[in-house]
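Entry for magnesium ion complex. Fields follow.
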Amino acid sequence: RLAGRRRTFDGTGRTADGTRVQLLANIGDPAGSAPAAAAGAEGVGLFRSEFCFLGRETPPSVDEQVEQYRTVLAQFPGRKVVVRTLDSGADKPLEFLSSDDEENPALGVRGLRTATRWPDLLEEQLEAIATAAAQEAADVWVMAPMVSTVGEAEWFVSRCAAHGLDRAGVMIEVPSAALLSGPILGRAAFASIGTNDLTQYAMAADRLLGSLAELNDPWQPAVLRLIAETCRGGELQGRPVGVCGEAASQPVLALVLVGLGVSSLSMTARAIPDVAALLERVTVDECRELARYALAAESPGDARAVVRGRLPVLDELG
Ligand code: PEP
Ligand code: MG
């Protein structure tokens, strides 16, 4: 976080030259949506729907889901809310969506993969999202977690379309999907990069292991290159690419992400004012230059140092 005084956010993220960058909130369950709305987030870039049902042994009914989703959507009238379909597995297992015979759950049947094993649950969730969206005035987008192939993206988008949900996108958090973002975004309406898992899988380092924190760093040049490649696919297809992993909440790294081509940043709500304050001091061309330097670095430490060294405005803000 930036040092110094407490900041507020006026509700519109932009760079110094006026380029819009949507600043959105990550939320878990209905209880998290009120603080996000109060913090002035432009909307929700990641609604982790599985958080509504952690600890349950049986799947929620469609009606129960509609109630949960409506409570969240009602907080954001007229604003964008990106609902992620259930992302069960590894660090956040749902009992009714887990296989107990896996030795490596981080590499197992998780995220969208659970929908091939329990297809009715995806259908019911999409039905519930579509019903809630029809009853509330939020601008509802839907995205799938842990997409790894073009075929999975195509299948998910077609299932969404069957429920009348046309703003259907994918999370890019598996390196294979980052490398195939062109064809994936030929099918999906948008992509949101999950830097927490993208870093874990690019670096082969468990995101929950503190002893691997140096590897689990989104400033790793290999991770930045995967993000750049994802943005290139978005540009080729004319589709927006956002970031919804923790990387978006680091103000200096957020500039690099914008320079790489990301057009929205979704983060924990309390980080939004600091990210907004730095963003509005730097032009998009300057962000691009920072991104070039970061991409050319050979280590996360070098990337951080070269970018910070080119930002004298940090001293002023601090
Ligand atoms: C991510 O992986 O970066 C992400 C945003 O999703 P989660 O942290 O819920 O896995
Ligand atoms: Mg993830």
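NOTE: DSSP finds 14 helices and eight strands in the chain.
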